[in-house]
Amino acid sequence: MRSVNALILFSLGTFRLAAAWDFDILSGASEASLVTRLTAGTQYRYIAYRDQSGSLALRTCTSRGPVTKTISSGMAPSKTSVSVSRYGDLLITFWNGGKYYFAFHVGNSDGNCGPASEFRCGPVFLPDSLDTVGVLEDRIVGTVDGISQQHFIYRVRKAGVSHISNGLYYVTRAYQGY
Amino acid sequence: MRISEEDQTLFSGDGPVPTDLGFATGKLQLSLFGGTMPGFPASRPALAQRMGTFQGADMWQALGPYFVPHEGQSTWFDQDNQQKIHYDFDFANESVLVYGNASQPEAAGRCGADLDTAMVPSVAFSTATGVVGVVKAADGVTNPWTIETVDSSAAFTGVQLGLVGTKRWLAYQGAGFVKVAREQ
Predict the structure, then answer these.
(1) Most buried one in A87, A88, A93, B158, CB count within 10 A?
(2) For each of chain B's 184 residues, which pLDDT tens digit applies?
């Protein structure tokens, strides 16, 4: 991590003092997604990314500094997307070599991944029992509603399969009971 | 615990890439980029919205398209009130065009654009010489934008922007690292 301040810039024909910036470098990181959101009086700042070991990592920026957690080891995420719903729910989605996956923050050790099992991780349902073969890398986005139901939209581009169509697909996912 | 999943096809074909999804009471909103979609010009970004109680693909309603010439530009929309900002750069001419209104923005956004609590939109994009942040004047669509080079230490890609209060945060990809720039 290092800090650098930007200085003077030339903009639109006039000199002016540029904003000062701090820079953090996440070495070896890629496929990052940033989200900031103020909701219900809480300011959320998350960066989800693939770390240098190929794991899904999450950096939470707090007033006391950044906290980095490994959410799912060796998942080799790409096309990562992180969102915070208006209810404050954190949801990460990504591609992993043939499937779309999600990591949903559930807290209270109710999950199956992440430190203290605070995340629920798993594949996102693909249409018509499509499995890991025959899908090209693409993007998925997701969000969470007020009853913790997750909503996903992803694009499918097939390669060598005939029983599905290319297109956009919408999936909902809900946990019911215990 | 029982997990229920259902899926449906929004449309078939070589469609646009989903770039953002937001939920508000009774509405699920999706922003898309590019592709070809019924009702949308080819290679143009689209903004689509899903209304109601999520029953049936025909409940999707197109709100776009808007005109953006290339990827790296996007659409921002307010998840509650449908207010949206669309930004369009002509970097060679240092011009920025913005559509939409911002009367009651909520601090949320992806794809390199966001609104602060004072309703000032910010967008960010990368060029071959550096990450560039852009801030528009607060009082109108047509006022000049301030273009600011944030980081010219290398060529970067995939710049994203968020706002913490009025301070811009950027995340962008370098060669073997991700860099996060936080406005002081």
Answers:
(1) A93
(2) 445 566 666 666 666 677 777 765 556 767 666 555 555 555 444 555 555 444 444 455 555 443 333 333 344 433 333 344 444 444 443 333 444 333 322 222 234 566 666 656 676 766 666 776 666 544 444 445 566 778 888 878 778 888 888 888 999 889 999 999 999 9
Residues B21, A38: C-beta atoms closer than 8 Å: no
Nearest to B181 among A21, A174, A178 (CB): A21
- Residue B36 in contact with partner chain A when CB distance is under 8 A: no
Task: Report the C-alpha gap between B78 and A44 in whole angstroms.
Answer: 17
Kindly identify which residue of chain A lies nearest to residue B180, measuring between CA atoms: A24
Distances (CA, A) of A59 to A17, A106, A138: 31, 17, 23
Domain ranges of chain A: 8-173
User: Under a CB-based contact definition with an 8 Å cutoff, are residues A173 and A112 in contact?
Assistant: no
